[in-house]
Amino acid sequence: MFFSALLYYLVLIPISVLPFCVLHLKSRFLYVIIFYVVGYRKKVVLANIRNSFPEKSEKEQREIAKRFYKHLCDVLLESQTIFTISPKRLARHITCKNPELVNKYYEQGKNVILAIGHYNSWELLLTGLNSFLKHQAVVLYTPLSDSYLDKKMITARSRNGTIMLPTKGVKLFFETPSEKLHASLFAIDQSPADPTKCYWMKFLNQETAVLYGTEYFAKKYNQPVLFTRLNKIKRGHYELEFVEVTDKPLETAYGEITEKVTRILEKDIIAKPEFWLWSHKRWKHKKSDK
Predict the structure, then answer these.
(1) How far apart are alpha carbons 264 and 245 in whole angstroms?
(2) Nearest residue to 163 via CA among 173, 172, 171
(3) What is the Cα Rg of the chain in Å?
């Protein structure tokens, strides 16, 4: 706890108050360290890109990797601002294109499920999401192993009223009646812990185990599903956009919702691959593990 507190007060907090322009200057230095000196997960990144874009030349694949690392350094430093960022400052860096697409369900008295990928500056999205919705924003998350930093992260992400919900408590949450309508955010691009309890599909040219929770809870509780896209307008500035997936989940076939949200994310990645989290060990499981 002592070292975690030192990290929080001597590193994270001082970084969090810096202007974005200063963070971006530091980002280029960090890029040189991470890409050329440390080589952070470079083998994982290059392998993921190579397998996802086999039609591209080695030079093109490496260029994607370089652009990814530059963007990753931006995101890492931008994410530190959530510890101190004010609503006014946050509003200068993230806006919402079409909140009415979600808010219409609030008027209809319906809870909704939002699907998201690790694309662009997701920490800013989590922190700002609740300010754009009439629903109460609820974000599912896996607690950090460091309990001190986990509490600080929960506090930071909740600055604008977002509720952070540990994944272990999701079933109880959905089963407990609430007076407040909820918009529950599910990440769809993490590697499942159990490959036998997921949906298998072709994603980025590879057989992929996809988390089934978004579809499971949408159908079990009959909640409309929207994809949550974060567009990068320019460096340090993002626009949240909602995409309708289905307002009748009970009428969809098995795997249909999972396929739709994953295909939307895939299309975004193909268009701008550098904005996705390639350092994640996404393809740990093989279909033979099923």
Answers:
(1) 9
(2) 173
(3) 19
For the chain, the structural domain boundaries read 2-289
Contacts of 108 (CB under 8 A, 6+ apart): none
Contact (CB, 8 A) for 190 and 119: no
Q: Residues 53, 205: contact at Cβ < 8 Å?
A: yes
pTM of this prediction exceeds 0.85: yes
CB 230 within 8 A of CB 217: no
**Scanning the structure block, which residue is given the tokens 């579809």?**
215
**pLDDT truncated to tens, each residue of the chain (290 aa)?**
788 999 999 999 999 999 999 999 999 999 999 999 999 999 999 999 999 999 999 999 999 999 999 999 999 999 999 999 999 999 999 999 999 999 999 999 999 999 999 999 999 999 999 999 999 999 999 888 999 999 999 999 998 899 999 988 999 999 998 889 999 999 999 998 888 889 999 999 999 999 999 999 999 999 999 999 999 999 999 999 999 999 999 999 999 999 999 999 999 999 999 999 999 999 988 876 65
